[in-house]
Amino acid sequence: MAARLARVAAALIAALPIAVHAFDLQGHRGARGLAPENTLAAFKRALEIGVTTLETDMAVTRDDVVVISHEPALYPPLVRLDGAWLKEPGPPIRTLTLAELRRYDVGRADPATPYGKNFPEQQAADGQRFPTLDEVLALAKAAGVRVNVETKITPTSGATVVDPEKFARLVVEGIAAAGMEKRATVQSFDWRTLAAVRRMNPAIETVCLTNEGGSFDTVAPRDGVPSPWFAGLKLDDHGGSVPALAAAAGCAAWSPNFPALTRERLADAKARKLQVVPWTVNQPADMARLVDWGVDGLITDYPDRARKVLADKGVALD
To answer: Under CATH, what is the fold of the domain 2-313?
Structure first.
C-alpha cells in the first residue's frame, strides 16, 4: 500500500509545473541573515533585495499594541538597555507598555553569543526599536508587497501572552485598518489564533505552520495524547496526513519546516489546493531542490541567495 501511494504521489508531483509559476519569496524576520531581525532596518533591507513578502512575528504589549518580536519576552542576545546587553531574560512583552518597550535597542546581535555567531553577515543598525505591526503594514503597503505575520503563542503560554481570541482580534483590526486584507496572511503553529482570524475576517487568509523533529515538534503526539497545537483537530482523523489536517483547518497554505517536506507530501498538499511555503531555507542547494520540486515560495534569512537561485532557474516572482 505504501509503495502504491508513493507511486501515485510521484506521478502527481511530476505533473506539477516546475519553475514556471509565480513565486513568493519571503524575507524571514525581514532579512535576518543580513540585518537585525524584526527591525525596520531588516524589512527595508529585504525590500531592497526584492522580496515579495515580509515575514515576521508578533507580540502584544500591556497597552494592547501589536508589536514585532519573535520572542514573547526580552531576549538577551538581541536586546540592550542604555548600551548594555541584558544579562538574563527580560520581562514578557505583555507586561510592558509600548513606551517602556521602546527604551530597548534591538539594532544588533551580541557577537559573543551563539545566536550572534550564527549570522556573521548581519550588519548592525544601532538605535533600532521594536516596530509596531502598523509600521510594518505601512512599509509593505507603500512598497506594494505582502506581509505574513505570525502570532507567537503556544498552548501553554498562559498569561505571559495575550489570549488567542484577543490576539487574533487585535491583528485582524490592524490589518483591516491598513487596508491590507488581500495582501496579508496570518500564520501560527498554534492554530487557535488561525481559527479565530478566519471567523473574524474570512478575507484574511491563514497559514498553518508545523514543525517536526527535535524538542519542538508540533505534530507528534505526546504520551499517546494528540498534539495540542491544532485547535482540537486530530491527525489520526485525517489519515495521518499533515496537509489534510491543514486543509481541514481552513488554511490557504501549509508552511512546514523544510527538512520535513517530501515530494510526496508536496503532492498531497497540492492535491488539496494548498500553497506550500517551507521555512527556513538558507542554503542555495536546498533552495534549488525545493524550487525544482515545485514549492510555491520559500521563507529565508537570506533573500539575496534565493534571488540568485531563482534567477538562475528563470523563476518569476509573484
So the answer is: TIM Barrel (3.20.20)
Grid coordinates of 64: 494592547
pLDDT tens digit sequence for 14-51 = 444 333 458 999 999 999 999 999 999 999 999 999 99
What rounded mean pLDDT belongs to the chain?
94
- Contact in structure between 284 and 13 (CB atoms under 8 Å): no
If you average pLDDT over residues 278-303, what whole number do you get?
98
Residue 207 pairs in a beta bridge with 187, 253
> Are the beta carbons of 161 and 60 closer than 8 angstroms?
yes
Residues 6 or more apart whose CB falls under 8 angstroms from that of 89 comprise: 73, 74, 75, 76
C-beta separation of 167 from 151 below 8 A:
yes
Q: According to the model, what pLDDT value does residue 274 have?
A: 98
- In which band, very low, low, confident or very high, does the pLDDT at 2 lie, cut at 50, 70 and 90? very low
Residue 12 has pLDDT above 80, yes or no: no
- Please report the pLDDT score of residue 3 as a whole number: 43
**Residue in 100, 170, 158, 125 with CA at minimum distance from that of residue 30:** 125
Mean pLDDT of 61-85: 97
Cell 517536526, residue? Answer: 212
| pLDDT tens-digit map of 233-255 | 999 999 999 999 999 999 999 99
